[in-house]
Amino acid sequence: MVEIGRRLELKGLIVAAEGNLSVRLGGHAFLVTPAGVGKGALRPRDLLVVDRAGRCAAGRPTSEWPLHRALYDARPDVGAVCHAHPPWATAFSVAGRDLDGSLLTETEAQLPRVPLAARAQPGTEEVPAAVVPWIRGHDAVLLGSHGVVAVGPDLETAFARLETVERLAQVTLLAEVAAGRSGLCPADLQALLRSGGQLPDP
How many helices (H) and strands (E) does the chain have? Predict the structure, then answer.
């Protein structure tokens, strides 16, 4: 988990204290990242073991634990959850667009579609309520104006799926630009391309 946090930051998929990770340990125990700590600087002692209710002996777990718990409840096959704010994919979520994985042969089988969940207030039960209907049939979901969540049997797989969503978003937009069309308004598109993928704050 420490290594995945480091990779998320190095690849520009998170900044500051963004994102959160969790792993199912078995029974009702889960390993999660703490709240308010940069994931690129995590140490093993920073990680927290929580029960299903999010209780732990010490420390404050991620405020997005309700989302993680709901994903584990909805998908017994899921062993890990990875949530981050990759800029290209987040741009699509801000624009209100999902992603069509059939555009690329690399994603057609593993991520045929990355649906968009409704915008919800982070850290509230609104987020799992918006995501769970989609996660039952998909391994990654765009969160409305709030990044991406990806799941897998282990954390390495969940991380790889999140990376793949970001690449799909980047190639989708660049292909639309090359074809002379885009679902983003011209001003937002130019800002996105100038910044390397990050839309300005609304």
Answer: 7, 9
Please tell me whether the overall predicted TM-score, pTM, comes out greater than 0.85 for this model.
yes
Per annotation, catalytic residue among 3, 9, 18, 64:
64
Q: Write the DSSP string, 142-177.
A: EETTS-EEEEESSHHHHHHHHHHHHHHHHHHHHHHH
- The pLDDT value recorded for residue 202 is 39
Q: Does residue 142 carry a pLDDT above 80?
A: yes
* CATH number corresponding to 2-194: 3.40.225.10
Domain boundaries, the chain: 2-194
Q: Tell me which residue of 192, 201, 78 sits closest to 141, measured CA to CA.
A: 78
Whether 64 is a known active-site residue: answer yes
